[in-house]
Amino acid sequence: MTEAPTNASSAVSAQFAGDAQVGQTQTQELAPEQDHSRYRTLRDRLQQELNARVERTANDPELDNHERHWKLSSLWDSAVSADAKVSEFYEKELADNVSKEEQRVFRVPRDLQDSTRSAYQLVTGEMDLAGLEGDDPTERLERLYARARRTQDRALMLAAYHVAVERDIHWLRDEHLSTSPELSEAFEGYNLARQKLANWGDKEQNLIERLDGRRGLIKPPEVR
Predict the structure, then answer these.
(1) N or C: lower Cβ tally within 10 Å for the chain?
(2) Residues 57 and 76 in one domain
(3) How far is the C-alpha of 199 from the C-alpha of 221, rounded, in Å?
(4) Smallest Cα–Cα separation from 20: which of 52, 45, 42, 56?
(5) Domain assignment present for 76
C-alpha cells in the first residue's frame, strides 16, 4: 500500500509530520503478509518530527529544568497518542481491504445472481440432509459440483465453490479456482489481505516488531 495518506491519516499525523520526508528504508526481507510499510511511512514521519521538536526543546535556553522536563514529557505523550491513532487507522484500512478482496472472490455476474442464490440454498440444504442421513456432506458437495460441471450449470458451480470457500474445503475450492485465472488471482489477493490483517493483530508479532523497530516510536534519550 504505497498510495498517499487519506484525509483521515493526514489529520492524525499532521501534529508531528509537518513536511518531514519518509524515514529510513526497511532493508530486511519480509514475507508479504509482514510488509506494513504503509504504517511505517506514517510512523517514521512522526518519529522524525518528534525528534526535531525534542531537540529544539532540549536546547531551548529560555526554559528552566522543570519547564523543559514538562514540555519534553508532553511531546512524548502526544506522539505516542498520535502513533496509536495511526495504528488504528491502518488496521481499519487492512480490514477494509479484506472486505474489498472478499467481494472479488464471491463476485457473481448480474445475470446469475438469482439462480446462484437458489443454487446456494440447494447445496447447503443437500449437505445438511447428508449429515442427517449419516453421509459425508463433502461427498454430497462433490457430486453436486461434478454434476454442475457436466451440465455447465454455472450457477450451481458458483454456489458449490462459495460453500467450499466458506467451509474451507480446499480441494473443491482449488479445483474451481483452476478454471479461472482471474478468480484465482482474486483469491490470492483475498488470502494475502486476511494474512496481513491477522499478522498486524497478532500480539506476539506486535511485540517482535516493537523490539526490532518496525512498530511504535523510539523514545528520545532527552525524554526521561
Answers:
(1) C
(2) yes
(3) 30
(4) 45
(5) yes
